[in-house]
Please model this.
Amino acid sequence: MPLVRVENLRKTFQRRGGAAVHATNGVSFTIEAGETLGLIGESGSGKSTVGRMVLGLIAPTEGTVDFDGRDLATLTPRQLRELRSELQVIFQEPLESLNPRMRVSAIVEEPLVIHRRELSPAQRRARVLETLALVGLDEGHASRFPGEISGGQQQRVGIARAIITEPRFIVLDEPTSSLDLSVRASVLELLGKLQRELNLSYLFISHDLATVRFFCMHTAVMYLGRIVERGPTSDVLTHPRHPYTRALLSATLSPDPDEHKLHVPLRGDAPNPLAIPPGCPFVGRCPIEIAACSAAPPPSHTVAGTHEVACIRADEAITTGSQFQ
Ligand code: ADP
Ligand code: MG
Model:
């Protein structure tokens, strides 16, 4: 049984004035224990909304989130609160998610105060120091304020805070986007080490394909509230089948000349969740669309193993490579 199972998740936000924003439009995936699923796509495609629904922070308009076989929607507020210690999140901006007036030790301790009431202050203190050590920080950092440490150290504090309750699943929402390259590598290394040691599952939200390629076993590509392609990262990012995935890849420079053959320019307007097209969400920007693409959203189908793509032209995308030049 997968640890996380998300089925047909839809979220519609009502804007003031009455406009409906369709942030996600039927998202499904599973994450096994100890696994990392990368979720990629342009800004506004609905990635963070998916993350918040998976954590039970917002309720889906439609669809279900199961954690360890339990449907979050059927839990009482008390059960949901208890489950919160097993589901954690790490955000992009470390400084924004850390209270600037609390010392590092108090920030890291806070989840224990909420979720582990049975621990004494001395036991909590010991756990804080242990956890700080796990993320490469020491007693010297514990007494500082977030503003007094570096960006990389702040993100380590965010990680310590997230893992101190021994969660089984963490949503990482662009956790390294605000960090320098060198710091990014060490934070990723730390996340990988913690995953192996604690058998953590991650939903890793990012628009940095190089990081996803390096860090995630599986990848799902989102476009305008839908997953258009997913599967093992080695398939999705090396043999992309959806024209949108190919466009995303060609927007990032690759040292591999073979990949340059995949060049797809993204044309047309940025996607607009206020006006979802009735058919494929990529219509209007797709270089190989045909009339049938506008009729109905293309169903996901398997192209190889567990590699799935929602494009009725997926075969074309491979055989008519010249159209992508
Ligand atoms: P991403 O993380 O991929 O950038 P988001 O999930 O943040 O995308 O947003 C998806 C869409 O939903 C965007 O158009 C965003 O403006 C909209 N949205 C997100 N949260 C809200 C909200 N609370 N109210 C109204 N619209 C929202
Ligand atoms: Mg986001």
